[in-house]
Amino acid sequence: MTATPLDLRSVIAGKRLPAAKTPLVSVNPADTAQTVAEVSLADRADFVSACRAAKNAQQQWARVPAPVRGQVIGAMGDLVTANKEALARIVTRDIGKTLAEARGEVQEIIDTCEFFRGEGRRLYGQSVPSEMPDKQLFTFRTPVGVAAIITAGNFPVAVPAWYIIPALLTGNAVVWKPAEYSAACAWALYELLTRAGLPEGVLNLVYADGEETFAGLSAALGEGLVDKVGFTGSSAVGVRIGELCGRHLQTPCLELGGKNPMVITEDADLEVAVEGALFSGFGTAGQRCTSLGTALVHESVHDRFVSMLAEATAAAPIGDPTRDVLYGPMIDHRFAERYESFLGWIGDHHRVLGSSGVGRITPANPRAGFVGDPQAGLFYHPVILDGVVPEDRVFTEETFGPIIGVTAYRHLEEAIELANLPGYGLSCSIYTTDAKKAFAFRSGIGAGMVSVNNSTSGAEAHLPFGGNGRSGNGSRLSGVWVLDQFTRWQSMNWDYSGRLQKAQMDVQTTQAEPDFRLPG
């Protein structure tokens, strides 16, 4: 029996907005005949209203002692743990991510809550010695105020948690705008988080399209209602948001796209490298900012690596995400259409490997060993492109889908140069048994995250996540590093001498004897 579609609407200060006359229909990408939700989209005025509600609620929330806010975060983790399987299945139904990956994504929320549960007791400042007598210096972390969080739908619950959890812990209020095509995931996460003891208005949920969101954000910034913007999405949109925030003297947290290289050295364990490339390139159907873009393979092992990867890819089960498969469908029609445009970049000089076809999997374009009904969803063949060169768009641009480029190199310096060439700087990987090569690669690569003998994808809750260049503005999520995104340092000096002491002017001096020498 098909479940009744969810009626999803924005929530501002605890109150749902009215239903739209023509809601957005969100479908299961693995079974496009199944409507998951009917989503009433808000407009720019609603976004501003949500920011105003957050502004009104923020100061009272900031006055809650930080250890108590940590208890709320702990309750969030407990609620997600108790609902882990249900939330994972919502993720799979909403965006077509395999159940195994969806469960891992929900675990990321739990890990994030576990980490920040105790950080409420560790929002440390410092006491600093003064250059004056009878004077003390202090530093404090203070919340920024209202955080507007805008997230993509390929990691519809984990990535929002990376922003929302530390933002709330540090005393901020949040307006969260999730992707419209992952609306059911957002609703489920919102339901869990708001039942952990949050006052109304501290976390607000706004469903809106991109242009209305941008217009609302611009207006809210103009009114002084937003103090921090967090955005995960494309580099092109990230540039627009960065420019907008810059006009208001704000620095957003931007987590953008990637063209993540994987270097395979001549001494690499090729079986391990192939396993890593398979998961990096084709997990989540290649729809990750950390997905493998180009495998840079030493010329001496190139042919063997390509043969092994092609064989492993051809044998990998693909299809119904509720079953044991490497990947399921594209997460939405828009990504399927965009991926088809990327396939137009395949040239005559490329050797195409990995599957029995290219493009959408259909009865007329079948995939050997497909699991389930290919006509039901947005399923696409995996593609390995051997012979990719730096002049190819498939080398320089992010390709959000199940496609891996392969390029041969002669020496490690060339591999590092090729790895940096596209200008992204999110994630990368090197497979080698030579520690010297691993450290040389790390020091030469511009990426924010480096893996050795591991995939380009994968994050832990206590390690900084983020990129440079076209992949972001150097901001970091996760671990203690994210606290700098949602707090500002405030200094205080306290003079109890009973008189005015002027820094740099009334400082005591000492007399040294610089000409003293020991007898020779």
TrEMBL record:
Tell me which EC number(s) this protein carries: 1.2.1.3
* Xref: Gene3D superfamilies: Aldehyde Dehydrogenase, Chain A, domain 1, Aldehyde Dehydrogenase, Chain A, domain 2
> Which domain of life does the UniProt lineage start with?
Bacteria
NAD found in the keyword field = yes
Q: What class of enzyme is it?
A: oxidoreductase
- List UniProt keywords, sorted A-Z: NAD, Oxidoreductase
Q: Which GO terms describe its molecular function?
A: aldehyde dehydrogenase (NAD+) activity
Aldehyde dehydrogenase domain boundaries: 24-491
Give the positions the UniProt entry annotates as the active site: 255
Looking up PANTHER family in the UniProt record yields: ALPHA-AMINOADIPIC SEMIALDEHYDE DEHYDROGENASE
Assembly and oligomerization: Homotetramer.
Q: Which family does it belong to?
A: Belongs to the aldehyde dehydrogenase family.
Report what the protein is called: aldehyde dehydrogenase (NAD(+))
> What organism is this sequence from?
Marinactinospora thermotolerans DSM 45154
What are the leading ranks of the lineage?
Answer: Bacteria, Bacillati, Actinomycetota, Actinomycetes, Streptosporangiales
